[in-house]
Amino acid sequence: MSFFKKYSGTTNLRLVRLERMVWVLIYGGLLSIVLGLFIDQQQAQDASLFYQIGGLAVAAGVVLIYIRSRLREEDH
């Protein structure tokens, strides 16, 4: 019995796209927030745009995680 269980994934193409979109939104949003931190030192107005877009992307990713948790393999 192994400590980490291997995730075999899903064969449903719709669910695979949803799972990919979740992580793109979360990591892209976090990257946008970090870029906003660097820009904040020079132009605060542009930095607030990065903060807002990044926060919305992370929030959308979290919502998609909840939606994915409710979907089953049989749902098409």
Question: Can you describe what's shown?
Answer:
- With 76 residues, this protein is mainly alpha-helical.
- It has one domain (13-70).
- Helix content is 71%, strand content 0%.
- The protein contains 2 helices and no strands.
- The chain has helices at 13-39, 44-70.
- Helix 1 packs antiparallel against helix 2.
- The protein is elongated and about 50 Å long.
- It starts with 12 loop residues before the first helix and ends in a 6-residue tail after the last helix.
- The relative contact order is 0.18.
- The chain crosses the membrane at residues 21-38, 50-67.
- Keywords: Membrane, Transmembrane, Transmembrane helix.
Summary tags:
single chain; 76 residues; mainly alpha; 2 helices; 71% helix; elongated
**Topology as H/E string?**
HH
Gap from first CA to last CA:
33 Å
The shape is elongated
Helical segment tally?
Answer: 2
